[in-house]
Structure prediction request, 267 residues.
Amino acid sequence: MLRFSGAGVSDAGRVRPHNEDSGFVAPYVALVADGVGGAAAGEIASATAAYAVSAMVLAHGLEDPERVLTVAVEAAVASIRRGVQEDLNRLGMATTLSVLVCDGSRVVLGHVGDSRAYHLRDGRLTQISSDHTYVQRLVDSGQLARDAVSRHPWRNVVLRSLDGDPVGNEVDLVPVPVLSGDRLMLCSDGLTDLVDDARIAEVLKLQDPHSAAAVLTHSALLAGGRDNVTCIVLDVVDGPVVVGDGQLLGALRDIHNVVDPSAVRLA
Prediction:
């Protein structure tokens, strides 16, 4: 049966006072969530969404990934909404989400925002997520050249994210054809804003997933580290079913950032 074997690294960077990214790594689920810049309580939003999604996926085991992701995102939105209702100072808090789920034979990506997911096979790197940003819309419509994205003043304007609104939290569900030996990567835009795809592909050739994640994170810090940086590197492996505790990253490491963990209904 297929599963993930990997690790992640998260760093506050060299400019931001604290880390608003969250991440989670386990044998059948991995995710990155990035509190949307400029919004209230980004670390609360990302940690709450990461907790709700990972807990829901773990509770449902090796079930249909699309169905599990749909239920998990609903739980995340409900938790974020509860957090705003408890403290109106959090009004406007939101988060990106890029999550990979494996049921033993299939992998599905759930994605919203401008965090990213990549697939590496035979040295070829492919971005499997689509940025939900203003500049990506300009690129898609032919109004902006792709090589001009990094210089555009509105490059970080996110058009879709997870917030407390019960409607409008649309998440892309993308089947990811994988083979044993493939490598996957999840990251926040703190990495991809500063490290290009050529460098990412080069570093992902390192044998050890943790080393690859650490080197990529360090590359973003060397390039200025102007945002929080989170990077998760996963190898797709074939073997018996395993149980893993999971690695917590970033804001998710502090349970106080999670809105009422006991309220997440796992049924």
